[in-house]
Amino acid sequence: MYKQHPFYNVVLLGEILTMTTKKNEADPRVIRTRRLLQDAFASLIQEKDFESITVKDIAERATVNRATFYAHFIDKFEILEARLMESFMTIINRRICGHEVLNEETIQSIFLGVCDFHKDLSAMCKRRNASLGAVFETQIKEKIQTILLSFIDKDKMLSSSNAQFLINTASIMLSWGMYGLAYVWNKEGRQISAESFVKQSMPLVMNGAKALLE
C-alpha cells in the first residue's frame, strides 16, 4: 500500500497556514514571528554555508516548530529573498529620503544605496556565500528600475509609444549598470570609498540617464 511521505503532510499544513497568515500580515504576532525567523536565518548564515542550512536549523534557532516556519515562508530561498529585499529597500529608502524628483543627485543617492547593499551583503555572508546575491540579482535590478520609474511623471510615460520605449529602456540600462558597477567595486575589495567610486562613475552613468531626465 502506498504511504504518504511525512514531509508531504508538513508541506500541506504549511500551504494551509500560509494562506491564513497572508490575511493577517499586519498582525503584530505575525510580524514578530517573521522577524524571529529572519533573525535566526541571519545568524545561521554567519556560521554555515547556505547549502547546509535547513528549515529545521532555522526553526530551532528561532525556537519555533517547522509548521510555524512553513506558515510564513515556503522554503529557505524565500526567507533569503525576504531578508535581501528588506535589507535593500531599507538602505535605498534611507538614501533617497527627501528626494522628490529624478535628477543627478537622486540617481547618485540610488547608486550609493546599491553600493551599500553589496557591502552589507558581504558582511552578512561572511562564509562561502558570496554568490547568494546573484541568486536574486534580477529581482534587485528590477527593484532599482521600479524605483527609478517611480520618479517619472506618468503623463510623460504615456505621451507616446516611443517615449515609453525610451524611458523603459533607459531605466533598464541604468539599473543594470549601477548594479553591475557596484558589484565589481565590492568584488574587487572596495579599493576606494563608495562615495569616491560613485563620483568617478557618475559621468558614465548619467550618459545612460538622458532619456529619463529630458
Molecular structure report:
The structure is a single chain. The protein has twelve helices and no strands. With 214 residues, it is an all-alpha fold. The protein has two domains: 69 residues, no CATH class; 136 residues. The N terminus is likely disordered.
Structural class: mainly alpha
Counted by DSSP, the helix tally is 12
Assembly level: single chain
- Summarize the main sheet: none
- For the record, the count of structural domains works out to 2
**Order of SSEs:** HHHHHHHHHHHH
Radius of gyration: 20 Å
Helical content band? over 70%
Number of E-state strands: 0
* Overall form: globular
- What is the beta-strand fraction? under 5%
Spans with pLDDT under 50 lasting ≥5 residues?
1-23
Essential attributes:
214 residues, mainly alpha, 2 domains, 12 helices, 75% helix, 0% strand, disordered N terminus
In summary, what is this structure?
Residues 31-91 form the HTH tetR-type domain. This protein has helices at residues 6-22, 28-47, 55-61, 66-72, 76-96, 104-124, 132-135, 137-150, 154-157, 161-187, 194-207, 210-213. It has 214 residues and is mainly alpha-helical.
Layout of helices and strands:
Blueprint: H1 6-22, H2 28-47, H3 55-61, H4 66-72, H5 76-96, H6 104-124, H7 132-135, H8 137-150, H9 154-157, H10 161-187, H11 194-207, H12 210-213
Helix pairs in contact: 1-4, 2-3, 2-5, 5-6, 6-10, 6-11, 8-10, 10-11
GO molecular function, one term: DNA binding
Domain HTH tetR-type: 31-91
Keywords: DNA-binding, Repressor
